Amino acid sequence: MDLKIKSASEIINHLITWGEITRYELSGIAGAQDWMTTFENAGVLQTSATDIWSLTPKFWSLLGRDALEVRSDELRVRGLRTALFQVPGYRGYLISILAEGAASAAKQGLNDEVEKWSGDELLPFLSSINRMLDRIEADGKRIIDQKADQIPVLFASLQERQTNWDNWNQTLLGRTARPQDLFDFVLKRFVPYAMPEPCNAHGRTPALLPILPLVDADGNAQFMNLVPEPWNVSRSDIQSGIALFDEYGKPMSEMGTADAARNALQDALIEQPFYKAVTQLAINHYRAKTASSPSFELVLQPGAGLSGVALFYETRKMGLLKDWLPLLVQCQECFAATPLEESHVENMMENLLALEILDQADDNLVLHEDFQSTLMAGRLRSVFRPGKALQERMKELVVRRENEKKTEVRSEEEYRRIFTHKILTPNSSILNSSSKEELE
Question: Regarding beta strands 316-320 and 334-336, do their DSSP bridges make them parallel or antiparallel, or are they unpaired?
Fold first, then answer.
């Protein structure tokens, strides 16, 4: 990979993992400042605060609706392409290849293909393509009236063609060739990443669940002698790691002793949206013992491991916790911006157990006794009382989603009754008497 693009890849990988990057973190990446300016001009980065940059809503939209179904390694490749395809100079160059390919196809009489492209793949780019054609046709002669071998010459004269993008083409398109030979590659590789889909964030903050290296190979929590790293640096607009150090690498709380470091790490950990959701589910279960109210349970499934913890509500299994977490963090005005992989969920549960926030009781994961004792003392106003409102929102969400599922099932049953009523005789065994009465 080209050295300059390698630096861009490092920056984008960091941003997809943590959502933000600080000047302190950029110091170890060659040529980073030039890339920050490039990405800001491309509309994929924004300044969150002094010396802090975060990904824009436009970038999350460009990743596409199916980003949550994509593995993290594939997401990093998609992220790099998404960012670099928005760089104005390269984007203009690629659009010029689309324009030339369409013009050459029209010259060859491939009208059906051109018609299809103009109503589908090329539709978002037609205004840019038309402006290019206007420049080429400035002398009044239509491009379709030019000789076929003149079309590449005319496009080669455009400003968008005056930069050599071979290294970028090799990395992003998988091919280096003359522009007229790259049309299919641009159509396949560039177009799907080029236009933002509707962003459904609704003003929510992007939340990420990265791997947090808090547990050693023996399962022991590591919380002494910590130094600033991406996972423990405070973020401004994105919820990702945990806040132990500020954006300049300075400690945000006292961590000189083992007890102080453990408490600081616990406090920071349970403010991370995904960790907060799981912790509040466990607090709800603990609170329900005395309140006699509906509660959640976190239940280990036989042979499933920590990534396969099931969520129960009112003793009824709702499904896997992993599948519910993207919805539950919405109750904190966040949205899951990238996929939740099993390894990430397992790491979260390991951390909560190792830091003695959760404990295992038979097949259940419950609050650790030591952590429970702090809820009526040091964490009464910061965790216990504020958490009640969040727990109620999570209950409402789960109940609402279950009711929606029942409605969907009832709709399917209704469609089947109507279908059988239309094509089968009234005496069919598929139609019971009550169904006939409803439909007659």
Answer: unpaired
